[in-house]
């Protein structure tokens, strides 16, 4: 139990020491940012001195308007660049998503459609020709062979078995084989 208390006390001490270090680091960073901000403003925005005459005041206004226009152009260019890169990123992420194959394919339904209806759906009102797919097929006449005639003539298989049973049936089979 003593070891647990010692470990807990040590842990608490380390935690408070880390929090103190973090707080001092945050203060240092805030001070550094403030100094950097002051330096930037001193460099890019000199202190404003208002001239006494109306002519000089108008020239100052013209210079300020020119600077504002140039800054606006830069801002617009950066916005356009950002939009373009964002669009490219979206396209690339979509391609990556497609290549991974994580999307679900919708279940396809079987649709019965004639060739004419399919052409009408594809071509719209331009489709005037009716396609009869069966018109170009060859007509094949089936020749009846003797075997098929025999099978048709035999009829019921039970009668056939009864005829062949016994000595008479074997004699018929023997004669038929010759």
From TrEMBL:
Lineage: Eukaryota, Metazoa, Chordata, Craniata, Vertebrata
Record keywords: Acetylation, Actin-binding, Coiled coil, Muscle protein
Coiled-coil parts of chain: 14-102
Domain of life: Eukaryota
GO CC entries: troponin complex
Protein name, entry field: Troponin I, fast skeletal muscle
Protein source organism: Dryobates pubescens (Downy woodpecker)
A Pfam family recorded for this sequence: Troponin
Family per record: Belongs to the troponin I family.
A GO biological-process term: cardiac muscle contraction
Database matches in SUPFAM superfamilies: Troponin coil-coiled subunits
MF-aspect GO terms: actin binding
Chain's role: Troponin I is the inhibitory subunit of troponin, the thin filament regulatory complex which confers calcium-sensitivity to striated muscle actomyosin ATPase activity.
The protein's assembly and partners: Binds to actin and tropomyosin.
